[in-house]
Amino acid sequence: MRETEASTPCGEQEGSHLSSPAEAWGPWRPDLTEDPEGEIYNVAIVGAGLSALSLLRSGAAALGRTVVLDYQEQVGGLLRYLLPADGFGEEWELLRDFPFPAGVRLLLQTTAVGLLPASDSETAHTLVVRQRQGTAHVRARNVVIACGGLERPREHDAIPGTRPAGVMTPVLALQLLTRGYLPGRRALVYGESRYALATARRLAEAGMEVITAAPTAGNGRQVRLCGTLEKICGFPRLSAVRLLCDQQPVEIEVDTLVYATGLLANTHWLKGSGVELTASGAIAVDSHYRTSVPGIYAIGTVVRPELDHQDSLRMGKEVAALLPGGVS
Questions:
Q1: What pTM, to 2 d.p., does this model score?
Q2: CA neighbours closer than 13 Å in the CB half-sphere of residue 146
Q3: Could you read off the pLDDT of 153-188 as tens digits, one per residue?
Q4: Quick one: fold of 153-259?
Q5: C-alpha span between 258 and 196 (Å, rounded)
Q6: One CATH from 3.20.10.10, 3.40.120.10, 3.50.50.60, 3.40.50.300 for 21-150+263-322
């Protein structure tokens, strides 16, 4: 985003992002073309967010040869752009203090684009991954899918109106703040999660005028307005949004809408893999986090998509004891 009226420079939020991976996270050797042919890991973890880090903290030493891959340039998932923040103390403590285990290989800027399950119990699963150097294969006897989700955009919920600049999900607003820019001057943050309200506070602290709104008030958290988002107005820049509050239309003049209503499981890359999905697109697992394919597990928001990541740390800790050779 250019430094214009729509993107005003602001002070960088201290502690709002982690240091570079090469400095902070140990054995970061990204080029798979250097690997010996036929190399097989005991465990491959797809994703380096909260659930994956919780798994590594709980039992990395017992897992054998392990590789972790993530498409981002740093570990911590999307939530790291918000932290530190009220209500996310345990998550921040994990990211701030966690030492990446010695001997675990970390592949950042590495995107999983396909999964080829093993043909039998004697062979390895194959992850098809894409790096800047090209496409490569990662083979492992066990795979833990912890690749999280994507914040649900207004297009997914078919919110009527124009498609102007200034409409975004929380992660984009937080990324702009991290880079020293305000997303706008006056924002409506639409959502009732802890994540949504913490994003609203971060925007207000950076100097924006912020209004909070949500579809319902059933969670006990305080928002200024409750109602259905009916229409988005303005072009080329957002000028207003229309809510239906108590059956009455209310038009609110804003230049920024942060749409924070939910998460979509990141499972599109699993098409054709045989991994069973739920009706909502999340990965279906049993009580031991096993998917429908033997040797493939899933944890975190790819299993239970929600913005607050309430179960991610617990899932990582639990699956560490359930993997073959895991901690007891």
A1: 0.89
A2: 37
A3: 999 999 999 999 999 999 999 999 999 999 999 999
A4: FAD/NAD(P)-binding domain (3.50.50)
A5: 8
A6: 3.50.50.60
